[in-house]
Amino acid sequence: MDFTKYVSILETQALFFSRADKLEDPYEGATSHINATIRPLVYKNIPIEKIAALSRLSNSFRQWTYINCWHMNYYESSAMWKLYGAFAGSVAIRSTYGILSKCLADEAYVGIVNYIDYDKDWLPEGNAFWPYVHKRKSFEYERELRAIIQEWPTTNGKYDDKKKNEKNGKMVKIDINKLIGKVYISPTATEWFAELVSTITKKYGFNFKVEQSILAKDPVY
């Protein structure tokens, strides 16, 4: 993330969850093409108009699904730095699956993204979270972990599928001291920027270890 987003996390002590339909991938929340093709056979005892209604509901529900995205890896990813931290003033925060899950507790569903062929593979159905923990194989390099929150739109206490979401996302309070294990500075960052990140972190009362990306380490010949 860029430095301003990092400062926002320290200031608000919260994570931002973006609306699914505001993310770049138009397949967010979509089912696979093979699902759409064989649904009439799989659900042959259900009227076709109800299947169509389910499809419309799934599409509408994207605006009420909020996602916070992470990259899972034992090592730093050069690709992730280039895609999401290309600016020299960028940082990455490290945590673990278990810690993130505990920090969010019952607030969110935390799951690893599965990558499938949307032209050939059946995407499991029957759970509203599953379309958001499946992506096309073209995104396998992301090795993504997601925290997901879903809200049911209501008006006067009743479900309202015509209600529009006025928010772009939501901030979710979290114990930052427990969540963040270490902060990494962009491999292209200057020494003064690394010092700035350490100083700002301490000013907010946190003692995370801050170090520069290992990708900045000089080679040995």
Would you kindly provide a brief summary of this structure?
About 30% of the residues lie in helices and about 25% in strands. With about 220 residues, the protein is of the alpha+beta class.
| Overall pLDDT confidence | 91
Show unreliable segments: none
Number of helices: 7
Q: What gross morphology would you assign? A: globular
What is the share of helical residues? 25-40%
What is the first-to-last residue Cα distance? 32 Å
Order of helices and strands: HEHHEHEHEEEEEEEHEHE
What is the makeup of the main sheet? 5 strands, antiparallel
Structural class: alpha+beta
As for the number of domains, it is 1
Provide structural commentary.
This protein has 7 helices and 12 strands. It has one domain (3-215). With 221 residues, it is an alpha+beta fold. The chain is globular. The strands form 4 sheets. It has a 5-stranded antiparallel sheet with strand order 4-7-2-1-10, with helices on both faces. It has a 3-stranded mixed sheet with strand order 3-11-12, covered by helices on one side.
Labels describing this entry:
7 helices, globular, 5-stranded antiparallel beta sheet, about 220 residues, alpha+beta
SSE order and pairing:
Blueprint lengths: L2 H10 L1 E6 L13 H10 L5 H13 L4 E7 L6 H7 L6 E4 L2 H8 L4 E4 L1 E3 L17 E3 L7 E7 L3 E2 L2 E2 L9 E5 L2 H4 L2 E4 L5 H13 L5 E4 L9
Parallel strand pairs: 5-6, 11-12
Antiparallel strand pairs: 1-2, 1-10, 2-7, 3-11, 4-7, 8-9
